[in-house]
Design a protein that fits this description.
The complex is a heterodimer. By secondary structure, chain A is an alpha/beta fold. Chain A contains 38 helices and ten strands. Chain B is of the alpha/beta class. In chain B, the strands form four sheets. Chain B has a five-stranded parallel beta sheet with strand order 4-7-10-3-11. In chain B, strands 1-2 form a two-stranded antiparallel ribbon. In chain B, α3 packs antiparallel against α4. Chain B starts with 12 loop residues before the first helix and ends in a 6-residue tail after the last helix. Classes of the chains: A alpha/beta, B alpha/beta. Chains A and B meet through α17 and α18 of A and α3, α4, α10 and β11 of B.
Chain lengths: ~850, ~375
């Protein structure tokens, strides 16, 4: 025991952080946990560990339990048949959901969900498969998911506010200050690297009992150095109390019980005293399903705290181990037959990637068996080589290197690093270092890190699990299937289909459109809008048809299972998702987009309390740009409600936003240049809307706000021009007054003169007709251009270009005509291009070609 | 006659740590690559330190960690040097590339001075060999007249040859290494049959290249292929940076006879300044404009040491904040006056906030901002 301390005492490693536990205490704990004479053997595991799984197989074969109890929410017991079905392939996850409609967890009555992922080499799955294959009573014994939530405090354990909550408490093993110090003192980069050396590699060279001793020693250290308050907050004690109760119940019925739990809990299961009373939680609010999962989602490096990193690497190691163990067993069987002529009881066990037969693994004399050292080294070496070659090949395709010699050097590097680090086999970290050292040429930057990105991807893997036909599906999936059947959509094949919907003329098409929008909103990857009005983007609103493409796949079902936490039907799920989005700190603009989405999904009539929430968010928003977007979105909803057959009335809300917007307007005077385009767009939108007769009573307020803005001493020139243009458009400012103001800038000093271009830009953006009424403005501009020197003109040119960019070609022609007249030229003359001679044309073509050639050279 | 150790400004690693190296070599029981002075494990121990002391000849040696940074990088370097490829350390200035290459050479070959110092003027004879012209005229091209250069010596004796700032050398000079690193043989045509120098076991090359001044990208791909590259990144933790400053300054002080111990709080303050300016964000969350010049740990050591010397020779033995700020300005504002504005901005936001919050040293540091000019 205590190899991880590397010959030091606990005090030497952790100082004041060290737990007070002696070697004799540890021996006693180990005896209590797995003395061969005990009725209950507690096997401590880490989720997703091939070494734990291998030793677990050995222990099951030796101990021959008649009951296996596994850590995992009790709700999954009905799914064991699905999990062990021959058609089911890992990775898969048990998906738990709970709808807190009674407010047992919190007053917010939220929905909760979590995943419990399984890989082929997860000890829990190995235990479940072994139990089923050998007809041993097998049971998950943790608290039901809803009870774990009830036992946890807000933002702790499974109630953490994370994108994805995993039922996995491996993090307990590495988070205490003592454990961090241990990792640091051992010179490892991370806990996972320490784990690989001492447990995945060294552990495989040990007898099972020694491995379990070490495992428990480490787990007890992490347990004793964790904060009790945190364990309490995360519901750890409640879970252990429930598991203890389940074990006590099993002791009444079974003779030999094997308990497979995270090693962190073994101590609590042995000596815990706490009690826990269950809540009366309605069954219909709880959902448990098995769903296909991906290697990517199980990778501990992907931020979901889901387990060990590099799943594809350890999967390859696991497969290598299983093949070796099977061959080993076959050899033993042959010698059995030769020696005794007896027919082995192992007959009929199949060996496949998914179904590892417990009894086919070397059974005899296990306590004295030391794992096949040379073969094990070879397994790790082969896996490392496999990744070196596949990474090399993939990188070579894209960048031309590394060479085969680089690959040889990398393997050499990996082997020598393992030796230098005192590792018996080459692990994933040596593989990583060898690729970094041998494949990356030059400084390690984003430009040269392709080998590392490729390796990282390879180590994660891309396998996606598969479920058997009998797997139970949540109501949401049934609703999806039913809706597809009702609309005669082709599902069940992965061919992409396209459909055209007359959403305004056909009630049936509108319903189908709502369904597609709901699927799109739930990110199910089923339907894509190819063409049609895109209201949230404010694009193509004039289109009267929608063209959708849809494609069924297993991923669609997986996404729906994941979304089933939001509700049993698609409308319910979409609405719940919208509501949960509104709970986060969204802006008014975002909230109004949610309203549009509800509108598209046909859910606006089902809004209920969500509308009140939405109103609070919108009214509480003080950001001018967000308010302007909100206002525009609300107007759109208001205008389209008839067409979309919606009864939604947003008039009151729209007016409230409008009032807020005009109140904010005068404070926007000193705007940064980068925000000015957005601000002018907002003003113009307001102007366009208020031009309409139905809003004429609201104009005066806007005019006053614009005047207030105009009178500000420091005002962005673009915004000044724009506000004057709008006032002109609303008939509230005289063209002469605007002309005088513009002239004031043009004849001003230094910087003020340069601001003139900005004023014109804003002015023409909002009211370009000013330039087309008479020639007064043209004369002002002409005079101005005549007065400024070349350098000043060049400085203003970009703004002037934008200003004149707002005119249509016909208008430009008209302006050109006026300018031509001012200089005594005819319009035709002014506009006519000079004739180009054939020589000139030829020269031009040659010049063009030359420039293109030259530019290619410098690409 | 060589300079005595006590008179050297900076004694080479094998001299400074001579006893320690000997103790490690003599107590080393692991397997050694041919011609190495010690095993890879012992080299690692020499550079990364040992938790337990070693006893040799009745004396106890506490092997301290000499390179504070990425431990796995050191391991990769050691393994690379035991293999077929050269080692190329690249990174920003002041990230201890040279120090690491010296430590490696001293531990592996017992010599860190077999070095080519790369410049634009480096020629082949500075790398390979040249002639003693008096002897050449008298006896013709004979071995006696040959003056071996570091690459020749490295190959002949089976030791490491260091190339400092390899990317500063002209491309032709860099490329002359290609065939030598592949074939492990150096030809001296003038000596005919006698002129083939086959590299002895133990020979290898460590190059260092600075990514700030001249890009390693300009290195030919043929040469790149003959090296394993290791990028040395600046220290990412302020606490570690503080420790480096203290270690280095104490070493410098000891070498130069300055009897003054380092002030941990000043080192912490300086490490914090360098760390925050380099990362662009303060420990309190301020977003900071990063200066254009290099904010390396080596520069921080130099600023501290300069301030320490001023305090020792001209002051009362305690480092004054005025002096520290003056040296900081000198170190940071080199190429671009805009950097001064950035430092001033740093003082007016971060240092001011820390001065209000923590007072004491930070307050005096903030008061010394008048020297930011």
């Amino acid at each position: 025991m205590g190899e991880i301390l590397r010959g030091e005492t606990l005090a030497e490693v952790g100082g004041e952080l060290s737990p007070a536990i002696s070697d004799s205490d540890m021996e006693r704990i180990c005896e209590d946990a797995f003395s061969p004479n005990n009725q209950v053997i507690y096997f401590p595991v880490r989720h997703h560990s091939p070494a734990c799984s291998c030793h677990l197989q050995q222990v099951i074969a030796e101990f021959k339990p008649d009951c296996i109890l596994i850590e995992g929410p009790a709700g999954a017991n009905d799914l064991i048949s699905v999990m062990t079905d021959v058609e089911t392939e890992a990775p898969f996850a048990v998906y738990y959901s709970y709808k807190d409609s009674e407010g047992i967890i919190s007053e917010d009555k939220e929905q909760y969900r979590c995943y419990y992922p399984f890989l082929d080499y997860s000890p829990e799955l190995v235990a479940v498969r072994a139990g089923t294959n050998n007809k041993i009573h097998t049971e998950f014994i943790d608290l039901p998911y809803a009870e774990i939530l009830a036992a946890s405090e807000e933002n702790a354990g499974l109630r953490k506010n994370e994108e994805k909550n995993n039922y996995n408490d491996d993090y307990y093993l590495s988070t205490s200050a003592f454990m961090k110090r241990l990792v640091e003192k051992s010179g490892f980069r991370s806990f996972d690297e320490l784990w690989e050396k001492y447990f995945e590699i060294d552990g495989m060279f040990m007898e099972s009992r020694e491995f379990m001793d070490n495992m428990l020693y480490y787990c007890v250290l992490s347990r004793l150095t964790s904060k009790e308050s945190e364990l309490l907050a995360e519901g750890c004690f409640a879970r252990e109390a429930y598991m203890r109760k389940k074990i006590a119940d099993a002791k009444e019925k079974f003779q030999k019980i094997l308990v497979v739990t995270g090693g962190f809990h073994t101590y609590g299961l042995l000596y815990g005293q706490e009690q826990y009373s269950l809540h009366n939680i309605k069954k219909e609010n709880q959902g448990v399903y098995v769903m296909p999962y991906s290697m990517e989602a199980t990778d501990g490096l992907n931020g979901y705290a889901s387990g060990m990193p590099f799943p594809a690497f350890y999967q390859a190691v696991w497969e290598g181990l299983q093949i070796t163990l099977t061959q080993d067993n076959e050899t033993m069987l042959k010698s059995d037959r030769a020696e005794t002529g007896a027919v082995s009881s192992l007959k009929g066990n199949c060996v496949s990637k998914q179904h590892i037969p417990t009894e086919s693994v070397g059974i005899r004399d296990i306590t004295s068996k030391v794992f096949f050292s040379e073969t094990l080294k070879q397994i790790y070496r082969d896996v490392v080589l496999q990744f070196l070659v596949s990474t090399g090949k993939s990188v070579r395709k894209k960048s031309g290197s590394p060479s085969t010699y680089d690959e040889i050097c990398a393997l050499n590097m990996a082997e020598n690093l393992a030796s230098l680090r005192g590792k018996k086999c080459i692990g994933a970290y040596e593989l990583w270092d060898s690729v970094l050292s041998s494949y990356v040429k030059g400084e390690y930057t984003r430009a040269t890190d392709l080998p590392m990105r490729t390796l990282r991807k390879g180590l994660t893997g891309k396998t996606i699990g598969k479920l058997c036909k009998d797997a139970k599906m949540p109501p949401l999936v049934h609703d999806f299937n039913e809706t597809c059947r009702k609309h005669r959509l082709k599902v069940g094949s992965t061919v992409k289909m396209e459909i055209v919907l007359n959403i305004f003329s056909s009630e049936k098409h509108r319903k189908l459109s709502e369904f597609f929008h709901q699927m799109d909103y739930l990110s199910a990857g089923f339907a894509t809008l190819v063409k049609g009005p895109r209201l949230t983007l404010r694009k193509d609103r004039n289109l009267i048809r929608e063209v959708w493409s849809y494609k069924w796949s297993t991923q669609v079902i997986a996404s729906l299972i994941a979304s089933s936490v939001y509700g049993g039907t698609l409308p319910e799920a979409a609405l719940s998702k919208i509501k949960s989005e509104l709970k986060t700190n969204v802006s008014g603009a975002k909230a109004s987009e949610c309203l549009i989405r509800m509108f598209e999904m046909g859910l606006d009539s089902k809004l209920g309390d969500a509308l009140a929430k939405l109103e609070i968010i919108i009214i509480g928003d003080d950001d001018f740009f967000s308010l302007a977007k909100t206002f525009s979105n609300l107007i759109m909803v208001d205008e389209l409600s008839g067409l979309y057959r919606s009864g939604l009335d947003v008039t009151g809300l729209t007016r409230a936003v409008y009032r807020k917007l005009v109140t904010e307007l005068p404070h926007m005077a000193e705007m940064k240049d980068e925000d000015v385009t957005e601000a002018m767009e907002a003003l113009k939108t307001l102007f366009t809307i208020l031009e309409k007769d139905r809003y004429k009573d609201d104009r005066q307020m806007f005019v006053e706000a614009l005047y207030a803005l105009n009178e500000k001493e420091k005002i962005n020139p673009n915004l000044l021009g724009c506000s004057m243009g709008i006032l002109y458009g609303l008939g509230s400012m005289d063209a002469d007054l605007i002309g005088r103001k513009c002239a004031g800038f043009l004849t001003g000093t230094g910087e003020k003169q340069l601001e003139a271009a900005g004023v014109f830009r804003g002015l023409f953006f909002a009211a370009r007709d000013l330039l087309l009424v008479g020639d007064a403005y043209i004369k002002i501009i002409d005079e101005f251009i005549g007065r400024v020197d070349n350098a000043q003109f060049m400085q203003m040119l970009p703004q002037l270009r934008i200003a004149f960019g707002y005119f249509t070609p016909t208008e430009i022609e008209k302006i050109g005509g006026v300018v031509a007249g001012m200089y005594g030229m005819k319009e035709q003359e002014f506009n006519r291009l000079a004739d180009v001679t054939p020589e000139q044309h030829q020269y031009g073509v040659a010049l063009d070609k030359y420039v293109v050639e030259m530019m290619k050279r410098y690409e | 006659m060589g300079t005595r150790e006590a008179d050297m400004i900076k004694p080479p690693v094998e001299v400074a740590y001579g006893e320690e190296l000997e103790a490690l070599a003599m107590t080393d029981t692991a397997k050694k690559p041919m011609n190495w002075k010690m095993s890879p494990q012992a080299v690692k121990t020499f550079i990364l330190g040992a938790e337990k002391p070693i006893v040799y000849n009745g004396k106890t040696y506490n092997i301290k960690k000499k390179y504070l940074g990425n431990d796995t990088l050191v391991e990769r370097c050691i393994v690379t040097l035991a293999g077929n490829r050269g080692l190329m350390l690249v990174g920003e200035p002041g990230t201890a590339k040279t120090m690491l290459s010296e430590l490696l050479s001293a531990a592996i070959s017992g010599s860190s001075t077999n070095t080519v110092q790369g410049t634009a003027g480096t020629t082949e004879d500075m790398m390979k060999y040249s002639w003693n012209y008096a002897l050449l005229l008298e006896k013709g091209p004979v071995m006696e007249a040959l003056v071996p250069a570091p690459l020749y010596i490295g190959m002949r004796d089976g030791i490491i040859t260091r190339f400092e700032e390899i990317t500063r050398m002209p491309a032709e000079m860099q490329d002359s290494l290609i065939s030598i690193l592949s074939d492990k043989v150096l030809t001296v045509p003038e000596l005919h049959d006698e002129g083939l120098v086959f590299a002895k076991q133990g020979f290898n090359v460590i190059g260092t290249a600075n990514t700030r001044d001249k890009g390693v990208n300009e290195m030919s791909s043929a040469l790149k292929r003959r090296f394993n590259f290791e990028t040395v990144f600046p220290v990412r933790e302020a606490a570690l940076e503080k420790q480096i400053i203290i270690n280095e300054v104490e070493k410098l002080a000891a070498e130069n006879g300055i009897e003054m111990s380092s002030d941990e709080k000043v080192a912490e303050l300086l490490a914090s300044t360098y760390h925050e300016l380099r990362e662009g964000v303060s420990s309190m969350g301020h977003q900071i404009d990063k200066p254009g010049s290099v904010m390396s740990t080596a520069e921080a050591v130099s600023v501290y040491y300069q301030s320490m010397m001023s305090a020792y020779y001209y002051g009362d033995g305690t480092i004054s904040m005025d002096c520290l700020v003056q040296n900081l300005v000198g170190a940071v504002v080199k190429e671009n006056r805009d950097d001064l504005e950035k430092i001033r901005g740093y003082f007016n936001t971060v240092v001011r906030a820390k001065s209000n919050k923590e007072g004491g040293l930070w307050e005096r540091y903030y008061e010394a901002r008048r020297w930011l000019k």
